[in-house]
Amino acid sequence: MELPRHYLPARTCPHVGIDLYQRLLFADYGSYQNVNVSVDVVDTKEIITSWPQRGQKSIQDLNKILPTLPLFDQPLQELWRERDNILGVKNFNDTLSSIKQLLKLTRLKNTAIKKRDKKFEALKKTYKHSGESALDFSDDVTLQKMMTHYSEVSLAYNDNCLNGYNRDFYNGQLSVISNNRDKEYISYVGGPDMKEMYITTVSQEPDSCLKTPHLVCQQSAEERINQLETRSTCYDELFLVCAREKQMCELFLADMAGRTLVPQGSVRISDDCWTSISFSNYLENELLLTSSSGDVFLWDISSSSEKIVYKSSRFDCPDKWSCAYFAGHPREIVVADNTSVEIFDHRSNFQNGQELFSLSTRFITVNEKVMAAGFLDFPYHAVVTDYSLFVMDQRFGSSPVFHWSTEFKAAPQYLQIIDNVMSPGKLIFLASQQPAEVICFPIDIDGGDIPKTSLLPWKVSAIGDFSQSEHHDYVCEVNVASRKFQTSLAGLAVTKMPNENVLTVYQMDSYGDIFFQTVNFNHSQTKVNPSSELDRQSARVRINEWLRNLDKTIKSGHGEVTPDMNVHKETFGK
């Protein structure tokens, strides 16, 4: 019997065309089901009531009370720089300088012409941005005309930016863990060279959605840290932190009571580089490490690392990358590269893997690649490509049981999966690096029933949305704030507090600044709880303070201010 291509209709987003800017026009409005809503004012308080429309039995949704807010009250970098640490480029000035050099060449060689064409093609595909004011300080008339025609410019594009991502930072430099005492610990990378690792505890006031950070400890690494992963232990105040560098993986025991990071060991690789790390969800002393050549190592903390799998690519791909994770058994692992996803286990001595997913023109477009993969719940797995998210059943490999068209502008690089407290299912969070976007895909998985969803995918508030909301009244430099928030995403982490119907989405930009958004679950309720006046006031104070400190940094001379930035000031986004 011929299996269907996918159970739900989905279109493939080509990510080109004039409608690119409108592709997620309604994604931020949070409408998950058809409901009737009424607003009544009683004693100066708004009471919002909603009820299902005909044919619906209940209301299930995720209530986003406030936009994404800064975790700290000021930007973490004292020397605010315009370099995007993830993609390895600078902002608009680098674009102008690079194109000027090309235009001033009297005789362009074929290679230069191709380079110019690629750059402008990439610039045309970037998200909509008003670049007119940034053209005022350009002296080259030809350049002004050309850049005015291609006014959707925000970043200078190198090889990474042509794709919108850098594979070195797969799954990001941010990780969050919560313990049984309702505490959250954030591990993140910072410092000028991305060699510093910080552990911060986050506290939350009762009946409030705002969070306050407290730095606990920090540790320096030998090389730039590309990925951080954390894992809880049987002790509340102890957890493991693994840092992936280019050729070194270092493991630490974080002791929150003693405020220390104790080294537990390291693994170095030569003539290759690490591409992913993953803790075992069964045994806390085991990790999986993968290299760009396709080698998979099982690292037992108590002993040593051992190479257990070599996965060869289906075809030659210049972008060498692989990742691995534990599946439904402590000795069953899934290995993915750009071309396919396979399952290996100890019964065959980790040889002759079973195909879970491979690139097929039935489901994907030409030149599309595997970008990420993760374990949902036996027997289901999530596989991410440039433009699609698939749910695969390992009992029937190569035939997706669910398919979304993700419609990111750039291929996703960050994948986070958490339990959905509203139903026996999962919430799949995907994020792209540039532009920085996060989208959640809910899915219900109930025993032997087929995967299904009752909620539409929804977009998480972007890191700069708070500066365009009504929750602030500080007047800031519009161009400074705009370029600050156009940086790449360096990490994504999602956590859910035990015994609470609340989850928090953390995002970190390439400067090391962390932002968060709190989301409440509503299930079979008619009351929608809006943000309280205390929450709104607290959010306003933090936003104003953060924007004020950003302005101070620029005006003090720590940041580069282009001549057109001091012409006028306005409230950003209004």
TrEMBL record:
Signal peptide: none annotated. It comes from the Eukaryota. One of its GO terms (molecular function) is RNA polymerase I core promoter sequence-specific DNA binding. Residues 263-361 form the TAF1C beta-propeller domain. One of its GO terms (cellular component) is fibrillar center. Pfam families: TAF1C_beta-prop. This is TAF1C beta-propeller domain-containing protein. It comes from Biomphalaria glabrata. The gene is 106075758.
